[in-house]
Input
Amino acid sequence: MVEPSDRPASAAQRLGAPDSYGVSTLEPSLRPPTTQPSGGRQVPLRVQLLDDTQEVFQISQRSPGKLLFDLVANHLNLVEGDYFGLEYQDHRKMTVWLDLLKPILKQIRRPKNTILRFVVKFFPPDHTQLMEELT
Output
């Protein structure tokens, strides 16, 4: 078992944020399996990236939001994903964050007509705390 002091500080800890018990994209031990859940049909989801290009990702309809987020982060070769998120407009035209723990199709009613946006969630107060130049 790894002691908390043996692990490197997370992005939130380096920035002085309180401990979070959510899913971190930086913690290797919390990464979801790279395979998608078995069963269910494949659904194409369009994601608009920071440079306004769009990519289509095929995922199982039962997949959690974390799987899509990780596919986008891997596509961009992004390691420090804690600073980013996926947002979309719900049926009331409100912009909401994609919940990484819930199945995507429980959140998005019409995935074929929805464009998710890969966006910056927050900026660190001191850019020298970032570990990767790409971030």
Residues 20 and 38 are 30 Å apart (CA to CA). The two ends are 30 Å apart (CA to CA). The first strand starts at residue 42 and ends at 48. The chain is about 15% helix and 20% strand.
